[in-house]
From TrEMBL:
<protein>
    <recommendedName>
        <fullName>Neck protein</fullName>
    </recommendedName>
</protein>
<dbReference type="InterPro" id="IPR021674">
    <property type="entry name" value="Phage_T4_Gp14_neck-protein"/>
</dbReference>
<dbReference type="Pfam" id="PF11649">
    <property type="entry name" value="T4_neck-protein"/>
</dbReference>
């Protein structure tokens, strides 16, 4: 026996579908919160391991989402592990499927569904959460369609990713936590601007030594650089691409600015601690054989 032709509960784009979808969107707008959705850009993907150590977040899209955790964060919480304090707070966001599509993101299939690895900035706690899993069947085909996505997210751990979203609150996370080097500048002219690219050489296009301005103090002439490429020379001026500021260098830590120094390395701290324990001026500091 066929279903009743006058009652279509599993059709496509029916009036019932649109009604439920509109009610879902209206409910999220009423009880939800505005967040920023940050799509992840893979700049140099390792196809074997499926990761990218130089990934970046170049845009932020405002959208309303509903928080499903009514009693607080879930997950493992905060605890002391082998490598120090770990924060594993988890939260689940719900977003309307149609509203997500209206963001206009077309890269890597994001026009239809959020991606694992993307970030959500939660303004209530001023924290970034990384999407671990996207559930598209949380509400199982109500009136024949899927109206929402549930995104299980965990507190994001920064590891030298680049943020260039245009939202200063978010971009400041990179400047606060990224690996950086302070340069004490000497004579010159102009003022560097935060976020601009600086270089050494005849032009930016030909330069092999580049960096991004994290901060500039015109009084103390301390220039903080991050996202550095190449080895900076102490005898060549650092030039700002947009500000045209140009200063010679008084001093900087050449070891920290080396191109092959990992952003998370602690070789300088280890060397200083070791020098206080072992006398490396001897031929064999551990004794004679």
């Amino acid at each position: 026996m066929a279903t009743n032709q006058y009652f279509n509960h599993h059709g496509t784009n029916t009036p019932e579908n649109r009604l439920i979808e509109n009610l879902m969107i209206e409910s999220i707008k009423t009880y939800g919160i505005d967040v920023y959705y940050l799509p992840k850009t893979l700049n140099n993907e390792d196809t074997l391991l499926g990761e990218d150590a130089s990934s970046s977040f170049n845009s932020a899209h405002t959208i309303e989402m509903y928080i499903k955790n009514v009693e607080g964060f879930e997950g493992e919480g905060d605890f002391i592990a082998k490598w120090g304090l770990q924060i594993k707070d988890q939260i689940t966001f719900t977003v309307a499927k149609r509203r997500f599509g209206e963001l206009g993101m077309t890269t890597d299939g994001r026009a239809k569904i959020p991606h694992e690895g993307d970030l959500i900035y939660f303004p209530t706690t001023s924290a970034l959460f990384q999407i671990l899993f996207v559930e598209d069947e949380a509400i199982f085909y109500q009136t024949g369609q899927l109206q929402s996505y549930d995104m299980l997210c965990e507190m994001f751990t920064y590891s030298d990713q680049k943020f260039d979203t245009g939202i200063d609150t978010i971009d400041a996370i990179e400047r606060a936590h990224s690996y950086s080097v302070d340069f004490t500048m000497n004579t010159g002219s102009g003022n560097y601007t935060v976020g601009e690219t600086v270089y050494q050489g005849a032009s930016l296009a030909a330069a092999t030594v580049k960096g991004e301005v994290g901060s500039w103090n015109s009084t103390t002439k301390i220039l903080n650089l991050l996202n550095m490429t190449g080895n900076f020379s102490g005898t060549v001026n650092i030039i700002g691409d947009s500000s045209s500021a140009s200063y010679s260098i008084t001093s900087f830590d050449a070891q920290q600015s080396a191109a092959n120094t990992a952003a998370t390395s602690s070789n300088v701290e280890i060397e200083a601690a070791a020098d206080a324990i072992i006398d490396f001026t001897e031929g064999n500091p551990f004794g004679s054989l």
